[in-house]
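Entry 14. Ran structure prediction on the chain below.
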Amino acid sequence: MLIKIYPENPNPKMINKAIQVLQDGGLVIYPTDTVYAIGCDALNVRAVESICRMKGVNPQKSDLSIICYDLSNISEYAKVSNAAFKLMKKNLPGPFTFILPTSSELPKIYKNRKEVGIRIPDNVIIRTLVKELGNPILTMSIHDQDDLIEYTTDPELIHEKYENEVNLVIDGGYGGLEPSTVVSYTGPEPVIIRQGKGVLDY
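Output, structure tokens:
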């Protein structure tokens, strides 16, 4: 199913449609402030497992990232030092993934890894979904090195490619090609692991 949601003014009816899919453990493709991504309710272990299967990712070995609405309840899912919080506050919402030590609220599937990526994209559609769902959303980029660019940026072609694998594709306009900048803050200082779209403001 492909639905159109306008970023400037997300239609509540369409948002509810997407929320229903997420609550039922379904998989959704949505826009972010970087590339289009695929996600599910981060606290629904079955849904997380099915995304990992689809993407060929071993959750025991790979870093998993979640999208939060804002920084207010971030400490439920990650251990955030004062210095990390200050840096995140300065740069989020924005095109960054901050890798932090996990906290006890996340399901066991995340705890096999001691770290979790935190995203707060500057995109109204995905943040509205997270807010309305009331849970963070597990997120993985749909970007594939072998793909034609159009299949990762044009929502109609994304739908054509993934319609049998996901429950819903949200058309929020053309997506970008540059991924988020990944910043690890698991030690005393932040370390940029991957330079992407975001330029870190210290």
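Residues 12-23 form the longest helix (12 residues). Will compare against last week's run tomorrow.
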